[in-house]
C-alpha cells in the first residue's frame, strides 16, 4: 500500500527544497511534520492537527502519526486537491498509481484520481496512531467523526494521558454523545486505547531513548503533563494543579462522588491554605470521608444549593472548590538519529499557574538542546499581547512565550554549567594527580555538579526561587511551585490540587472591582509586575572559564525553531492575528537575544527537521 523509504524520502526531500521546507535541510532531515490545522478557532475548518513521520521510513503502512485531530480527513483531502496534478489516470504520464512530486505529500504514491479517495487511503492505511494532548473538542472532533465513517482493516490507536482516555470513555464514546467505538465496555472495537505513562515508562528504551515508547516505524514518544487552566464553573480563580508520576496519590480521590460512568472528571478541591505535611493530608482525607458519610446519611439533602460530593465548601462560603485541567506535551524522537521535536497542547504560563509544570518540560528539553538533538518546539499562542491576563483562559500570548523561552534558556545554561563543572573536574584530576589538595578540590567540584543536577531534576535549577548564575550570567528568580503540587488524579483531565497561590504572584484587587469566574491570581497584576518576576534571558557572549580565560558561548537557543500553533482568529478586517503575534514574538526575541527562530504555522505547511 505504501512506498519504501529510499525513493519516497528522496522525492520528499526534493519537494521540501522546492517548497522552501524548514529544518536542517531536507537532505539531512529526520522528521517530517505536516500541518493540517494551525488555528485555535473560532473557524471549525482550521483547528489543531498535525501529522508526523520518520523521513527514512517513507510512506509505509502505519508510518504516519497524527498529533491531535481537530481537523483531519477533510484537511488532507483539501491539501491533495491543491497539490495533486489534474487529470490523474487520463494519460500515460499520469497513470495510476502516481507518485506525487509536490506539496507536503510529495513522494507518496496515490492509487486514485479523486483527492477524497486518496485522503481516505492515507487515513485508512498510513495512519494508525493518534496522540491526543487533551480532550477538548477542537483537538479531537475530526478523529471522532472520521473513525466512525472509515473503519479500515485494523483499529486506530488512541494514545494519551490516562485522564484523556478517561474523558473519551466517559464523555465521548459513551453511546450518548457518540457510539462506543472502542474495544472496552462492549464497544465496536474500532478504537483501542493506549494509556501513556507521564514522564516515560522506565520499561522502554535504552540510553538517551530510555522511557520512550515506539509508536510507529522509526518514531518513539514520551509525554509530560502540563497545565491548561481549570473549570470556571462557580470559581473565582483560574489556575492549575499538577499530576504526579510514579508512586504518588491524590487525596482528592478519597470521598469523591461518581460522575458519569463511575468516575469523577471534575475533582473539586478547596481553595484554602495548603499544607504539605503528611499529617495534614491525613486530616484532609478524614474530612473528605466524613463529608461523604454525612451525605450518604442524608441523601435527600443533595440537590440545588447543596455541596456536590467531594466538595468541602458549601454555597456562599469563603472557600470554593477548584478544578484543574490537564493538557500534555509530547516529545517525539526519531529512533535512528535521536532527533526530536516537542509538541504542546493548550498550555498556560508557569508564572500565572497555581501549579507550574512547564519547567519540567524545559528541564527535560535542555540537555537535548545542548546536544543539538532538539530541532523544534511546536507551541500554542492563542492571543496577541493585547489580551489581558484574566482573559487568557489557560493559554499563551507572545509575552508569556518569551517568558517561557527565558526559562528554557536558563535551564540550558544550567545544563552547560553542569557539563563545564564535570569537565573541570576531569581536567583537574588528570593534571593534579591525587594529592590531598587536589583531592579536596575534586570532591568540592563533584559536590557542586551533584547539587546542580539534583536541583534541576527536582525543578529547583534554573527555575528556583533564588537567582542563579550560569555561564557568567545571573538569572532573576522566578516563582517556584506553590507548595506540594504533584499529586496524581489519574482518571480525570481535571487535575485538582489544594494549593495556595504564590505570595509573589497574588495581589489585591482594588476595591469595587470584581471579575467573577474569570480572574486569575495574576489578573490583578500589571504587565510590568509580571515582567519583573520573569527570569533574565540567558544570553550568549563570553563566559568565564579557569583562571580568567573566557570562551565565546553560543546563544542558549541558537538554531531552535519555535513553531506557533493554535492561533485564534479575530475574524475582523484588521491585520491577521497570526501576523500580529509573529511580529510581537520577534520583537521579544530581539530584546532577549536567545537565538531561537519563530515560525508561524499555516494549513498545508510542512517542515523537514
From TrEMBL:
Gene3D superfamilies in the cross-refs? Ribonuclease Z/Hydroxyacylglutathione hydrolase-like (3.60.15.10)
Q: Name one GO biological process term.
A: negative regulation of glucose mediated signaling pathway
Please name the Pfam families in this protein's record.
PDEase_II
Q: Where is the composition biased (Low complexity)?
A: 286-316
Composition bias type Polar residues, residue spans? 267-281, 460-477
InterPro entries from the UniProt entry: Pdiesterase2, RibonucZ/Hydroxyglut_hydro
GO MF annotations in UniProt: 3',5'-cyclic-AMP phosphodiesterase activity; 3',5'-cyclic-GMP phosphodiesterase activity
Chain intervals for the UniProt region annotation (Disordered):
264-318, 423-519
This chain belongs to which protein, by name?
Answer: cAMP phosphodiesterases class-II-domain-containing protein
Per the UniProt record, the source organism is Echria macrotheca
Amino acid at each position: 500500500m505504501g512506498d519504501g523509504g529510499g525513493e519516497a524520502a528522496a522525492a520528499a526531500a526534493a519537494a521540501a527544497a522546492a517548497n522552501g521546507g524548514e529544518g536542517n535541510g531536507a537532505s539531512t532531515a529526520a522528521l517530517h511534520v505536516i500541518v493540517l490545522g494551525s488555528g485555535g478557532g473560532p473557524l471549525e475548518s482550521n483547528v489543531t492537527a498535525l501529522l508526523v513521520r520518520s523521513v527514512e521510513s517513507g510512506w509505509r503502512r502505519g508510518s504516519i502519526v497524527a498529533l491531535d485531530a481537530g481537523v483531519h480527513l477533510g484537511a488532507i483531502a483539501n491539501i491533495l486537491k491543491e497539490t495533486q496534478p489534474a487529470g490523474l489516470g487520463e494519460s500515460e504520464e499520469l497513470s495510476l498509481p502516481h507518485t506525487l512530486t509536490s506539496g507536503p505529500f510529495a513522494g507518496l504514491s496515490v492509487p486514485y484520481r479523486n483527492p477524497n479517495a486518496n485522503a481516505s487511503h492515507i487515513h485508512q492505511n498510513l495512519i494508525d496512531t493518534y496522540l491526543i494532548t487533551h480532550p477538548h473538542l477542537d483537538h479531537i472532533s475530526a478523529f471522532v467523526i472520521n473513525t466512525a465513517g472509515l473503519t479500515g482493516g485494523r483499529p486506530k490507536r488512541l494514545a494519551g494521558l490516562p485522564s484523556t482516555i478517561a474523558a473519551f470513555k466517559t464523555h465521548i464514546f459513551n453511546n450518548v454523545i457518540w457510539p462506543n467505538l472502542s474495544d472496552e465496555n462492549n464497544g465496536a472495537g474500532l478504537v483501542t486505547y493506549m494509556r501513556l505513562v507521564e514522564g516515560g515508562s522506565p520499561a522502554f528504551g535504552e540510553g538517551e531513548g530510555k522511557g520512550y515508547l515506539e509508536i510507529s516505524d522509526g518514531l518513539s514518544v514520551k509525554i509530560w503533563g502540563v497545565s491548561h487552566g481549570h473549570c470556571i464553573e462557580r470559581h473565582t480563580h483560574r489556575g492549575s494543579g499538577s499530576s504526579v508520576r510514579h508512586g504518588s496519590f491524590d487525596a482528592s480521590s478519597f470521598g469523591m462522588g461518581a460522575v458519569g460512568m463511575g468516575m469523577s472528571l471534575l475533582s473539586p478541591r478547596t481553595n484554602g491554605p495548603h499544607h504539605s505535611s503528611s499529617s495534614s493530608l491525613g486530616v484532609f482525607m478524614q474530612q473528605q470521608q466524613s463529608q461523604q458519610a454525612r451525605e450518604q446519611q442524608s441523601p435527600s439533602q443533595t440537590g440545588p444549593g447543596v455541596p456536590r460530593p467531594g466538595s468541602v465548601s458549601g454555597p456562599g462560603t469563603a472557600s470554593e472548590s477548584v478544578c484543574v485541567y490537564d493538557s500534555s506535551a509530547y516529545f517525539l524522537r526519531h529512533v535512528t538519529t535521536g532527533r526530536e521535536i516537542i509538541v504542546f497542547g493548550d498550555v498556560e504560563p508557569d508564572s500565572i499557574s497555581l501549579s507550574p509544570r512547564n519547567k519540567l518540560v524545559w528541564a527535560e528539553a535542555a540537555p537535548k538542546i545542548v546536544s543539538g538533538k532538539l530541532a523544534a518546539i511546536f507551541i500554542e499562542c492563542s492571543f496577541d499581547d493585547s489580551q489581558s491576563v484574566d482573559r487568557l483562559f489557560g493559554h499563551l500570548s507572545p509575552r508569556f512565550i518569551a517568558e517561557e523561552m527565558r526559562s528554557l534558556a536558563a535551564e540550558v545554561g544550567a545544563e552547560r554549567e553542569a557539563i563545564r563543572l564535570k569537565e573541570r573536574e576531569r581536567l583537574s584530576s588528570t593534571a593534579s594527580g591525587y594529592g590531598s589538595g587536589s583531592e579536596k578540590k575534586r570532591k568540592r567540584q563533584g559536590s557542586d555538579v551533584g547539587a546542580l543536577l539534583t536541583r534541576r531534576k527536582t525543578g529547583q535549577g534554573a527555575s528556583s526561587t533564588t537567582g542563579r548564575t550560569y555561564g557568567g550570567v545571573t538569572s532573576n528568580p522566578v516563582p517556584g511551585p506553590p507548595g506540594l503540587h504533584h499529586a496524581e488524579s489519574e482518571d480525570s483531565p481535571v487535575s485538582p490540587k489544594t494549593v495556595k497561590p504564590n505570595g509573589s504572584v497574588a495581589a489585591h484587587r482594588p476595591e469595587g472591582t470584581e471579575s467573577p469566574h474569570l480572574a486569575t491570581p495574576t489578573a490583578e497584576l500589571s504587565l510590568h509586575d509580571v515582567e519583573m518576576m520573569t527570569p533574565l534571558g540567558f544570553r550568549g557572549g563570553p563566559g568565564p572559564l579557569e583562571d580568567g580565560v573566557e570562551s565565546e558561548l553560543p546563544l542558549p537557543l541558537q538554531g531552535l525553531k519555535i513553531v506557533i500553533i493554535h492561533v485564534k482568529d479575530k475574524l475582523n478586517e484588521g491585520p491577521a492575528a497570526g501576523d500580529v503575534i509573529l511580529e510581537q514574538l520577534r520583537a521579544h526575541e530581539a530584546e532577549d537575544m536567545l537565538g531561537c527562530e519563530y515560525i508561524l504555522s499555516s494549513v498545508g505547511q510542512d517542515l523537514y527537521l
